[in-house]
Amino acid sequence: MSDRIHSTAAELAEALAAGSVTSVDLTQAHLDRIAAVDGDVHAYLHVDAEGALEQAVASDERRAAGTPLHALDGVPIAVKDVLATAGLPTTCGSKILEGWIPPYDATVVARLKAAGLPILGKTNMDEFAMGSSTEHSAYGPTRNPWDLDRIPGGSGGGSAAAVAAHMAPLALGTDTGGSIRQPGAVTGTVGVKPTYGGVSRYGLVALANSLDQVGPVTRTVLDSALLHELIGGHDPRDSTSIDQPLPGLVAAARQGAAGDLAGVRVGVITELAGDGWQPGVMARFEESLELLVKAGAEVVEVSCPHFVHALAAYYLILPAEASSNLAKFDAMRYGLRVMPQGIDSPSAEEVMRATREAGFGDEVKRRIVLGTYALSSGYYDAYYGQAQKVRTLIGRDFAAAFEQVDVLVSPTAPTTAFKLGEKLDDPIAMYLNDLATIPANLAGVPGVSVPSGLADEDALPAGFQVLAPALADERVYRVGAALETALTEKWGGPLLAQAPSLESTQNGALA
Ligand code: GLN
């Protein structure tokens, strides 16, 4: 084990099992790191030092008694603030939920607790998971640990930055259009969107129910597999949860790490490359492909012609679902209630209007308007109905492609991390970041983003995306781990070893 905060979760689990470290030590080391650098990064919205240490003490007692609950018992974790945590604030990055403390745990959180993982805190995110930069958080942006003037991706920039800056060995994210994979790409971390229905959504505050998935945010592919196996599997509380055993994800990651991809057919998606893609991102992508070929994979080009319409379809389907989900924030049931000025006895509707006006940010309002418009009678067929048809065609593109190849690949995002503020006033430019990740959500298929190296132009991380058919999540782990092994060998260590330590920026050096 290298040290407490730079080790992988798999290494920490081994050290805990060997008795060479305690969970209290590990948890405290991460809390110290948070205290040292999160003033600059702002990955966390809420840190639960007391609760995490209590859980760590209990974990150490179990280890001492020889009764650990799970291999990861005692390894601390961070949780995106869109997942309900009993007794801990859950804001979804929104003012409208300020002060809300859920009375129950999301199933994935309950599973973390049942396995003995201390929960360090809740991570920052774009409001209600709408965004690609975490700048839409009502609590201020998260900064990219590689360059504090740049975005960490979104919506789950907090989880990705926490893991990249060694403020947590593991984190949970959610991916509706790319919010696990794109932050992974721009922070040099690994992120997985599981097959739709593979991980419970119970207790995940819904953005768009038909697209949302919870998944792992880690520094290695093996760590993602370990966490995915822990949180995944059937949940009777989620009607879309798949009632069948997960494939062997850890076994697939280990198989891939051994470096043999003989017989694996890899399809490069023609539509997800070319003009408009940053040259340095494309160069790292091409290099990664060569490494897959070296490992024995066969690489071919595959066309998915309807992917060019994915973004447009997504930005009708998502706002439609989001606008009905957000209707529950009515000033009566949760969080904020704002009384309108100058009205003596306001009606419920007037209170609702004042609360939403004050409690929702601009991007949320924009999508509510878009969604209600797309669903309104008279426009429903022209917009929402058409978008659903495009969604079907995208699913068919995937089905046809997966008849020819085992996995599909592309760069995860078209560019490296952009500057804070650069795209904030241009929603379309912001939406374009998810060009390559959205098709997987529309079709429900699994995907991973693995760091592919630093782009020549700016020395910032780029990501390599691997997609597989629904229920074949093990393939993304096998191919992802093979690539990670080959690249780590080439770099002489993990990519994150090249990131700034952040120590020098301590105590708010940046205004
Ligand atoms: N950036 C995308 C959006 O704003 C994806 C969000 C997500 O995956 N939660 O919709």
Automatic annotation (TrEMBL):
PROSITE patterns registered for this protein in UniProt: AMIDASES (PS00571)
Domain of life: Bacteria
Stretches assigned to the Amidase domain: 25-476
UniProt cross-references to SUPFAM superfamilies, sorted A to Z: Amidase signature (AS) enzymes
Region (Disordered): 134-153
Listed GO MF terms: ATP binding; glutaminyl-tRNA synthase (glutamine-hydrolyzing) activity
Keywords in alphabetical order: ATP-binding, Ligase, Nucleotide-binding, Protein biosynthesis
InterPro entries: Amidase, Amidase_CS, Amidase_dom, AS_sf, GatA
Single Gene Ontology BP annotation: translation
GO CC term, one of those recorded: glutamyl-tRNA(Gln) amidotransferase complex
Annotated catalysed reactions: L-glutamyl-tRNA(Gln) + L-glutamine + ATP + H2O = L-glutaminyl-tRNA(Gln) + L-glutamate + ADP + phosphate + H(+)
Pfam families: Amidase (PF01425)
Root EC class: ligase
Residues at the catalytic site: 80 (charge relay system), 155 (charge relay system), 179 (acyl-ester intermediate)
Enzyme Commission number(s) of this protein: 6.3.5.7
Protein biosynthesis listed as a keyword: yes
Quaternary data: Heterotrimer of A, B and C subunits.
HAMAP family assigned: GatA
Purpose of the protein: Allows the formation of correctly charged Gln-tRNA(Gln) through the transamidation of misacylated Glu-tRNA(Gln) in organisms which lack glutaminyl-tRNA synthetase. The reaction takes place in the presence of glutamine and ATP through an activated gamma-phospho-Glu-tRNA(Gln).
Annotated NCBIfam families: gatA (TIGR00132)
Family in the record: Belongs to the amidase family. GatA subfamily.
Protein name: Glutamyl-tRNA(Gln) amidotransferase subunit A
